[in-house]
Amino acid sequence: MTGVTGERVLRRLTPAQRRVRGWLDRIDWALAGTAILFLLAYAWPILDPSLGHEWRVVCSAVTFGAWLLFGADYATRLWVARDRRTYFRKHLLDLAIVVLPALRPLRLLRLVVLLRVLNRKAASTLRGRVPLYVSVSASALVVCAALAVLDAERHAAGSNIKTFGSALWWAVVTVTTVGYGDHFPVTLAGRFVAGGLMIGGVALIGVVTASFAAWFIDRVRDDEEAEAQAATQRDLAVLTDRIEELTAEVRALRASAARERDRAPA
Fold first, then answer.
1. Using one digit for the tens of pLDDT, what is the confidence trace for 5-39?
2. Distance (Å, rounded) from C-alpha 134 to C-alpha 8?
3. Does residue 2 register a pLDDT over 50?
4. Whole-angstrom distance, CA of residue 241 vs CA of residue 237
5. Residues 210, 216: contact at Cβ < 8 Å?
6. pLDDT tens-digit profile of 69-92?
7. Pick from 43, 44, 38, 88: which is nearest to 67 by CA?
8. pLDDT by residue (tens digit) across 112-160?
9. What is the pLDDT of residue 103?
10. Which one of 25, 61, 117, 193 is at 20 to 30 Å from 46 when CA atoms are compared?
11. What does the buried/exposed string (b/e) look like for 71-97 if buried means 16 or more CB atoms within 10 Å of the residue's CB?
12. Distance from C-alpha of 266 to C-alpha of 258, rounded to nearest angstrom
């Protein structure tokens, strides 16, 4: 049914749109690689405050190039969409990734592209790999939040997050909703990152809970199916034995009837 629907959608596109759509399906991993390059270029100046001016220019060029690529990707996907209004409403986060580059900590929103690509690639084989997928997503979320809050808090007055270690510790206790309170953001940008991390932590807990519930239900269903199959096999075995007994009885009756006919006078 899905294949038929996809074919109908493709028929409604122009030849140029069909070619572009096929090309977009093949560049997902290139976008993921670009997102990783962006993360490296974003993290390097933060982790190394003494980085030279030339390398800072290179990192800025990489992040700017990633922004251009993601903007072009969004505009192209909007152009080839069958219903542009629906696509616009359902991809507001992708739009935010493109139009919010001026807010430095929020530039990490572009890394959502990486998770989106991984989600599209793993959608058909995600069952049974949820723990790995959640672990990678949680790790990426914690590291990105630590970088963003350190970038926002390092030089702020009254800040208690001055090193990547303290930022990473803050991100871990925040995403797990523990919140010791020994480190906390004091800037507006840092608090914005904290809010996003809290929401992400709650979402991850929900995913883990739902995944465990689905796994438990699948195990119970598998056990029930196995028990039902075993009961069916037992019933078939009993029925087969009974049929064999009835067959033997019928044969004995036929043999007895044949003997009676042979003894009967002509």
1. 445 544 555 665 666 666 666 676 777 777 788 88
2. 34
3. no
4. 6
5. no
6. 878 888 887 887 777 888 888 777
7. 38
8. 555 555 555 554 445 546 666 677 777 888 888 898 899 889 888 888 9
9. 46
10. 117
11. bebbebbeebbeeeeebeeebeebeeb
12. 14
Cα 11 → chain centroid: 29
pLDDT band at 57 (very low <50, low <70, confident <90, very high): very high
**What is the value of pTM for the model shown?**
0.61
Long-range contacts of 192-198 (CB under 8 A, 24+ apart): 192/105, 192/106, 193/105, 193/145, 193/148, 193/149, 193/152, 194/145, 194/149, 196/145, 197/141, 197/142, 197/145, 197/171, 198/174
CA distance 18 to 10: 6
Quickly count: other Cβ atoms within 10 Å of residue 109's Cβ. 20
| 171 CB-contact burial (10 Å; exposed 0-12 / middle 13-18 / buried 19+) | buried
CA distance 110 to 69: 11
Residues in the chain: 266
Q: What is the Cα–Cα distance from 238 to 182, expressed in whole angstroms?
A: 70
